[in-house]
User: Which sequence fits this backbone?
């Protein structure tokens, strides 16, 4: 058959649709131990399990924030952690109608013979791991494929390998009850202009959707987490309306309407930039038969992290910063963001060259 | 770049969007000389140039019909023909706001090593022909790829070859100012059920859109002419609402929103059946970011042909039949068709011919 409709089909479709509910989006809190370590060290906090737990509790238990969140992506450790009072985080989420998600890839490795291009690992035993995560309460998954733009990149090999990996991951997730977020991130690094980014994005997305079709993935039970279409990091910026036009057009040209929602990655944009661009997309007039929302990591947590600085007495201030970003992005999904919900650090670029998670 | 934006880009986009105007659709009158011969012989009319001309004049000059048509696909001979009074058909169309289209493929040939599967020819010198047709007034083109459903069909080779051929044809058209109608027809012949048809249709359309992307085709300046998703001709029929659901879903799963319109082929359905199914699709509640319209040949002309029977005195009666079908299909594109519109003789007659060769 064209697509696989296993026992979880209806649940996958309804969960994917729910995640795209207008006014809601995803908090990407799935930083691996190494990556969260870098964040913590930037605010002079030790990378211990209890500090990691404390940070996530700060976020997930911010009063009033979860109403703006349809899903949270977790790292495996966090899936099994609890609040200080002893309640599992997944319970906190469930009670607030937030779907727990889980990062299931095992990072990237280089493709020999290419100029530093990568593929993503994690397929071995993925079926069993997904089943376990489903038991633990997860209802969606995330797998990050990475491509870059350069003189000869992305190569056809990199596009094919990453598209195929995403498709295999996606069908295995669906067999085990998890909605797969398909994330083909094209890094923003480089001096290229927005047209080049659009070209590459369209080619990559076309390859992804062909691979998903080949692998019998049920599109109605998936989500896409792409980069926005923007100029490269070393190139002159453009207005949000331009980002909106190019991004929506790329999606119109490649993404079948059966996919219920797009949850953009922020990819190094500052908190405010990411929100304003998302807002522009939702104001853009054109054929948009899918929700356009967020799946932000850095762009939701940056000012919160700075405000917290690891100190108990800062928790309330940090939570206010987090609530402000959640609300701002919620408004952006409705095209209603007025701007200026900027906390300390909100306009700071979060771009790190050649960013490795 | 991802897609080619040549000098005709804006015109292609405007023309493709116009063809999908709600309330309008395409008359496929591009039967080759051989094919139109079969139609004429079925009503005992000789297959000569003047009779072919008379038939097309009957259709194109039906009072009030052209308002329901955004385009007419022509065979090469017809592109240069005139009314009895000496006016070029393309001018008749232009004056009525109808875009002339042109069939540019050169028919199918079998793929060796397959079980009767085919690919479509016509790429050689296609650019020059397109440029000539554009000069003669054509603004869109059509190329029919054919696939069939069988135990081992369609094969990956057949899907790849036909998708690639369609993509090459499409970009060449766009380079020369013609909106390409992409037509990957999956024949209705067979005992398979609607699920099988849906499976194959989704695979074929996915392959087509991948090929179009690979070949840098500007999707906003194209149209799709697919089969509706139905049970095979030897299988039990289903309700129009089911055809609508399966067809729209297949399109949702494969056709990017950038494509402005779908112009369905009728593929052997009776006139009434094709209209009722199209109507159901336009009533179907679901994501449909493209127009759903018609590009009917047999399903627009059957009762007209029967009514005419080649006789001058029947022209008015034949034109009434044609106007009726045009209006019915126009209503179907708006989801407003009430059904049974003064069914002429032949309107419910199945037009299926096994293993139909154009």
Assistant:
């Amino acid at each position: 058959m064209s697509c696989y409709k296993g026992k979880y089909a209806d649940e996958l479709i309804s969960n994917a649709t729910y995640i795209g509910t207008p006014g809601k989006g995803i908090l990407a809190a799935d930083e691996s131990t190494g990556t969260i370590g870098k964040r913590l060290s930037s605010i002079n906090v030790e990378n211990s399990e209890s500090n990691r737990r404390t940070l996530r509790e700060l976020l997930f238990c911010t009063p009033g924030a979860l109403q703006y969140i349809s899903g949270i992506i977790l790292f495996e450790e966090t899936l099994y952690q609890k609040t200080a009072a002893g309640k599992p985080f997944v319970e906190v989420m469930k009670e607030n109608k937030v779907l727990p998600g889980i990062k299931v890839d095992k990072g990237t490795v280089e493709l020999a013979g290419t100029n530093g291009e990568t593929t993503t690992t994690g397929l071995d035993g993925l079926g069993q791991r997904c089943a376990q995560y489903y038991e633990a309460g997860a209802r969606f998954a995330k797998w990050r494929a990475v491509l870059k733009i350069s003189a000869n990149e992305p190569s056809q090999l990199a596009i094919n390998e990453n598209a195929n990996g995403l498709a295999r991951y996606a069908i295995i997730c669906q067999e085990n009850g998890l909605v797969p977020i398909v994330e083909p991130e094209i890094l923003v690094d480089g001096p290229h202009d927005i047209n080049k980014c659009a070209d590459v994005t369209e080619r990559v997305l076309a390859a992804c959707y062909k691979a998903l079709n080949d692998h019998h993935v049920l599109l109605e039970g998936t989500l896409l987490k792409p980069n926005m279409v923007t100029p490269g990091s070393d190139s002159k910026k453009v207005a949000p309306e331009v980002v909106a036009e190019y991004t929506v057009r790329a999606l119109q040209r490649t993404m079948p309407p059966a996919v219920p929602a797009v949850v953009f990655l922020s990819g190094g944009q500052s908190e405010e930039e990411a929100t304003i661009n998302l807002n522009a997309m939702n104001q853009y007039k054109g054929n948009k038969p899918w929700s356009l929302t967020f799946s932000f990591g850095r762009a939701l947590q940056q000012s919160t992290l700075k405000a917290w600085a690891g100190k108990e007495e800062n928790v309330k201030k940090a939570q206010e910063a987090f609530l402000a970003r959640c609300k701002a992005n919620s408004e952006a999904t409705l095209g209603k963001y007025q701007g200026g919900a900027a906390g300390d650090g909100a306009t700071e670029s979060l771009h790190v060259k050649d960013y490795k998670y």
Observations:
- Chain A touches chain B at residues 1-3, 195, 198-203, 206-207, 209-210, 213-214, 219-220, 249-258, 287-289 (CB under 8 Å).
